[in-house]
Amino acid sequence: MDRRTARTKESIQRAYLGLLDECDTGEIKIAALCREAKINRSMFYRYYPDCYSVLEEIEERLMTEVEALALGWVKEQGMSLLSRVLHPALIRLYPDLDETRRKWRLSYILSGCMGLISRWIREGMQESPEEVARELTALTEQNAGLGQRGVCCRGQVPGSRK
Predict the structure, then answer these.
(1) Which of 41, 81, 92, 125 has its CA 20 to 30 A from that of 98?
(2) Mean pLDDT to the nearest integer, 65-74
(3) Confidence band, pLDDT 50/70/90 cuts, at residue 8
């Protein structure tokens, strides 16, 4: 999208949000929106078929921004938390393994966990957090051998008591 298009759409969206302070969604008219955005009707119709499509685009943009923030937080905080939980387990699991190789395994596990969590968020978090945690636990046990050596509790959500 070129800069002029982006500027015009941003102006229309800002005008829409400004009008929402004064009236309900269904009451916003294209004429008022064009007046507020300082554009003509043909310019509006070049980018949107109706007022509802402006709202849909605003909502999509907001959801994208919220997802990006959530993913950023998960990657920062989640990696740190998982690392603190899994590193001691890997030490117990592989006492003879040097620290470099242990960190490699930890990175491998953490990358898989963050990938699954990121996908879950991007796809709208349809499954419950408990279901995702169970799947993460099963995959981690399977791929790192944690369940085979009794380091993790098979099938239990970390932090829950069953």
Answers:
(1) 81
(2) 70
(3) very high
- Closest by CA to 106, choosing from 155, 151, 154, 161, is 151
Nearest to 16 by CA among 35, 43, 41: 35
- Encoding tokens for residue 26? 């269904």
| Nearest-angstrom CA–CA distance, 141 and 103 | 17
- The encoded tokens of residue 1 equal 């999208």
Amino acid code (one letter) for 121: I
**Spatial separation of the C-alpha atoms in residues 114 and 117, rounded to whole Å:** 5
Q: Does residue 152 carry a pLDDT above 50?
A: no
Q: Which helix (H) or strand (E) holds 123?
A: none
Q: How far apart are the first and last CA of the chain?
A: 53
**Nearest to 117, CA basis, from 72, 74, 76:** 74
